Amino acid sequence: MKKTAAIMIVAVMFLLFCPCVHAQQNSDDLDRLRQQIDSRLQNAADSDTNYELREMGITPTDEKGIASLDIKGFFAMLWDKFLSSLSVPMVMLGRILAVTLIYSAAELLSSEGKLGETFGTISIICVITVMAEAVSSSFDALRSSIETINEFMIAYIPIYSAVTTAGGHAATAGAYSASTVLICEAAEMIASQLLIPFLSAVTAISVISAIDPKLKISSAADSIRKLTTWLLATVMLVFVGLMTIQGVTGSSADSLVSKTLRFAASSFIPVIGGSVSDAFLAVKSGMGVIKAAVGGFGLIAVFLIAVRPFMLLISMKLTLWAGRIANEMLGLTRAAGFLKSIDAVLSIGVSILIAITSAFLIATAAVMSVMG
């Protein structure tokens, strides 16, 4: 009887005091984990993105900052970015319109024939000259943005996968890590080896077609744009389908494992089995909050990195559209066709940027959704 009474007293003491000790320890561990994640992810993002996130009050593990995000202020920030991105394209548009007016006046003063063709060729060369710096800077901004997204995701993927695994979703984390690492490798190859040569080659085709209309390749840029768009759309469709299937399957497997562990703890650990099961659930819930915050931080960070070149490319496209309309109104078809071709080249860049950014965003959002 004495032994039985002693065991019961020890069990009661353990039940009363140990959960508190473990709860306090778990709270301290979660706080240290939050600090480490904040430091790693803030170091992975570039300075501009970190500044914008601080202005919005968002940190990697603060779910309250993301939940209380001011939507109106966010769109106001995007509008300010768009207005600031118009400075270089507007200067380019002014130069294009100046060349257009001079070309139109020369067309009126000259007689039809070789002189008119000469004036047309000179005007195209002038338009190319005034556009070269702005177009080149937009290509560089696009490449830099893809590289920055890739560098951030290389640091982000292991952290988010680890948090996801610690939250009881090991299979889902494995599927997410495998798919996003593959995207990182593709993005690295595109940014470092394919993007600039590809866009430069299409631009060169447009320039040659504008200078010498006899070559009849003016629609090449638009055809390449359509082919690129269809190819990217097909790849994204396959990727989203596979990611959805893997996410749902992995989430079901993780849910089964979690329920099995809780059932085993409740059924086979004497006296304190229920407390162990509840402690496991509490830790899992705490990691779930961190996981949601880290996932939301990654989505916003990638979006902010991509939105800067996107705004610049959209501003360039708008100015090219305005310049093309002006040339068409004055009957300058060669210059209008050239501006249309360059617009198609920029559309290719926009499509590539959207595809790479959407792949990261969709993968992370899909994992957050199926785990939720």
Overall description:
With 372 residues, the chain is an all-alpha fold. It has one domain. It is 90% helix and 0% strand. The chain contains 10 helices and no strands. 34% of the residues are buried. Residues 1-24 and 276-280 have low confidence and may be disordered.
Rg, rounded, reads: 29 Å
**Overall residue-averaged pLDDT value:** 75
End-to-end separation in angstroms reads 50 Å
Strand content: under 5%
Structure characteristics:
single chain; 372 residues; mainly alpha; elongated
Please specify the SSE layout and strand pairing.
Elements: H1 2-44, H2 47-56, H3 63-67, H4 71-85, H5 87-109, H6 114-166, H7 170-211, H8 220-268, H9 273-329, H10 333-371
What is the structure about, briefly put?
By secondary structure, the protein is an all-alpha fold. Helices cover 90% and strands 0% of the residues. The model is unreliable at 1-24 and 276-280 (pLDDT under 50).
